[in-house]
Amino acid sequence: MAQYKVVGAPSSKNFQLARKLPFYEKPQKPYKEGVEKALSHMLKDRAASFSVLIDLVGRMLRLDPRERISVSEALQHECMVSYRRDHLENAEFRQRFVKAWRKLRYDVLTARDKTKVRDDSGKKRRVSSESSRALKKSKKVQEEVDDLYDIVL
Questions:
Q1: Average pLDDT, whole number, for the chain?
Q2: pTM exceeds 0.85 for this model
């Protein structure tokens, strides 16, 4: 129901087909679409400088999937074009991006060993030392094969 507050509740105007979906629950209130309005309200007097981004996010969060912006359209949106022009051509930005990406990868991979995991019954348990060794071994194999993170500047 919380998503209805952002994208609006299904109605004849925005996504009538949703009412026929198996897990549809009628909302208690008839929420209206309001992504752009909500973001503008949150940003207050800075909203004008973010108007292009607000437009993109609003088009991405349409309730009816047929009305949502496609990936290729989003990449051609003015917001993305200016972002690529302003940032991706900048060598310093690319270096910071690669460092941040590698740090995130490291944090995610090392967190797996330290955190609790859910077993099949949904209960949390610590990873056994045998499981931990298997994870480390699989990480080594993954690192040898995984070229997604091998970003070259």
A1: 75
A2: no
